[in-house]
Design brief:
The protein has seven helices and two strands. It is mostly helical. The chain starts with a helix and ends with a helix.
């Protein structure tokens, strides 16, 4: 029982780390090596689907702080001018900048399908393991 609890804690920690909750996705993908666990981690698809469902068509205005990465992003897109006092963008643009465009690339529907496939595979492998492993 103790081993199962420890393994579950490790898996949950890795899932949180590689899903984009702790380290932003653009940094995981840019490193090359860490892009593999990022793309196979089921939590990534939950996080992606959640954020895109909330912010994909959200046109609510978000004010960019002077000198922030969001302000630089808006200037590069041509939404704001250099030195503009009140630079604002949409909530969706803020999410896109914050996660380097890695979220919502293919929409929340794809995230649900991939997550469902990962969970189905986990269930099948669990069933096979329980069917074939005898503890007595």
């Amino acid at each position: 029982m103790a081993t199962a609890i420890i393994l579950c804690s490790v898996y949950i920690g890795l899932n949180n780390f590689f899903s984009g909750l702790i380290v932003r996705p653009q940094f995981l993908v840019a490193s090359g090596f860490y892009s593999i666990p990022y793309y196979i981690c089921p939590g990534r698809y939950v996080y992606d689907g959640l954020l895109m469902a909330l912010f994909q068509d959200n046109d609510e205005q978000v004010r960019a702080d002077p000198g922030s990465l969001f302000e630089k992003y808006l200037i590069e897109k041509g939404v704001c001018a250099v030195g503009q006092v009140d630079c604002t963008g949409t909530a969706f643009e803020f999410v896109q900048e914050a996660f380097g465009g890695e979220l919502g690339v293919r929409g929340p529907g794809r995230s649900g399908i991939v997550l469902g496939c990962i969970l189905l595979l986990a269930r099948i492998l669990t069933w096979i393991a329980l069917k074939n492993i005898r503890f007595s």
